[in-house]
Each structure stands twice: as structure tokens, then as C-alpha cells.
Automatic annotation (TrEMBL):
Protein name according to UniProt: DEN5A protein
InterPro entries reported for this sequence: cDENN_dom (IPR001194), DEN5A/B (IPR047278), DENN_C (IPR043153), Tripartite_DENN (IPR037516), uDENN_dom (IPR005113)
Gene that encodes it: Dennd5a_0
UDENN domain: residues covered: 1-255
Keyword field: Guanine-nucleotide releasing factor
Length: 255
């Protein structure tokens, strides 16, 4: 995905694609495959081994269209084992190429035999580099690849969507998945709660509640405000709030 090739293959990012979507067409929400793929996996497809951190990660995003309409996306990214021998072999080949290239670029040319004896072994540097960067061995390591499940909704029910995705992930990774179609249920049988009302429905493994504010209340904001203070700090939050009240232009920059 346009990353620096000096990175080891397990540290590179690869281009992701949408494997499936349901339903195929929604009248009020035309599907933009490139936008959804980029927003679900902003850093691209990633590979890891059993030695890496692989806990599921949740994030949200907003798609704003030309007419100002918005749809809200909620994504759960997790890692599953690569069962394709072809992909595992390709990763091993990438590592061999990377190690060979690194060795050529970083080994200084020398014809001095004394310098070899002073370091102990002419090939010692080369071998150590290979050991350092050869962190994937097809015969020893288990390869994992990132995958994402996503809900796109007309309103920002963050907590409810997070629970739905976590329970769906638990179901698809379970040795005995439940027989019911919970995806069909959430799309067609769970109604949007009326303004000022709460809705409780059955998830895969437990009840899920979403609440919609009335017209006389503040707009729906289902995100924990605590996280803003944890990420920015109290002083920066106060400064941002002051700038908003004074109608200053605010630019948020993030990786």
C-alpha cells in the first residue's frame, strides 16, 4: 500500500478490499467500496504472527456526501489465521528478498582479511542481520491477517453497534456458532427507536439497548467524553472549547 520497502514484510501494509456486503443495494445509502474500505482499514491490510498483539480493535467513522447527508460507520478489526499455503509461502519469499536486499545495502565492501579476523567472522554481520530480520519462518510461525466487520447506520448508535459487532465476532469465531441469522435480524427486524424512546433487542449473546433523544434534547452523542480528556488533556480541551465559543477556525491533525 505504498509503504517504505525498507520496512520488514510484517511491518508493511497491504491494500485491502471489500469481500462481501449485505444487502447489495440500499436506496438511501449508495455503497462506495473504496471509501468504506479505506475508512474501515485506514492503515491497510496487516499481517502478524503469534508473537504480536492481536486483540480486536474498534473504531468509528463518518461518511459525509456532497449534499451534506451523513452515514455513520462502526468497525471491528480482528486477526484470523492464514490457511492459504500460497500466501504463507509468499510472505516467506518476501522475507528472503528483504533480508538479501538489506544485506547487500548495509554490508560495506572489503577485501581486507585482517578486518575479517578482527570481527571473528566475515559472514558474522550478514548472519546476524538475517537472524534479526527473519521474524517469520513458515515452519515455525503461524501467520495471521487482519479482517474487519462493519455496520453502516443512519444514526450514531456507537455503544449499541459496538456490542453488536463484538457479539457477531464472538459468534463467527466460536466452534459452535448460533443457528439464527442475527445479521438479517439487525437489518430488517430491529426498528429505529422513535425520538425520546429507548429500544432493547436481543443480540447474539445478550440484550442490547440503544436510546434516541427527543426533539427537545441535545442531539445524539453516543461517544464517551472521557476519552477526549484522556487523549487531549484538560488544558487542550478547555482551549478547544474556548476557540469554538469564539468561532475560531480549528484544525485537528492526526495520524
Amino acid at each position: 500500500a505504498g509503504e517504505n520497502f525498507e520496512q520488514t514484510p510484517l511491518r508493511r501494509t497491504f491494500k485491502s478490499k471489500v469481500l462481501a456486503r449485505y444487502p447489495e443495494n440500499v436506496e438511501w445509502n449508495p455503497f462506495d467500496q473504496d471509501a468504506v474500505g479505506m475508512l474501515c482499514m485506514p492503515k491497510g491490510l496487516a499481517f502478524k504472527t503469534q508473537a504480536d498483539f492481536r486483540e480486536p480493535q474498534f473504531h468509528s467513522f463518518i461518511i459525509t456526501r456532497e449534499d451534506g447527508s451523513r452515514t455513520f460507520g462502526f468497525s471491528l478489526t480482528f486477526f484470523e489465521e492464514v490457511t492459504s499455503k500460497q500466501i504463507c509461502s509468499a510472505m516467506q519469499t518476501l522475507y528472503h528478498m528483504h533480508n538479501a536486499e538489506y544485506d547487500i545495502l548495509h554490508t560495506p565492501p572489503t577485501n581486507d582479511k585482517d578486518s575479517c579476523s578482527s570481527t571473528g567472522d566475515c559472514n558474522g554481520t550478514s548472519v546476524s542481520k538475517l537472524q534479526r530480520f527473519n521474524s517469520y519462518d513458515i515452519s515455525r510461525d503461524t501467520l495471521y491477517v487482519s479482517k474487519c466487520i462493519c455496520l453502516i447506520t443512519p444514526m450514531s448508535f456507537m455503544k449499541a453497534c459496538k456490542k453488536v459487532l463484538e457479539q457477531l465476532h464472538q459468534a463467527v469465531t466460536s466452534p459452535q456458532p448460533p443457528p439464527q441469522s442475527y445479521i438479517y435480524n439487525i437489518l430488517y427486524e430491529v426498528p429505529l427507536p422513535p425520538a425520546g424512546r429507548s429500544l432493547k433487542f436481543s443480540g447474539v449473546y445478550g440484550p442490547i439497548i440503544c436510546q434516541r433523544p427527543s426533539t427537545s434534547e441535545l442531539p445524539l452523542f453516543d461517544f464517551p467524553v472521557k476519552e477526549v480528556f484522556e487523549l487531549l488533556g484538560v488544558e487542550n480541551v478547555v482551549q478547544l472549547f474556548t476557540c469554538a465559543l469564539l468561532e475560531f477556525q480549528i484544525l485537528l491533525y492526526s495520524q
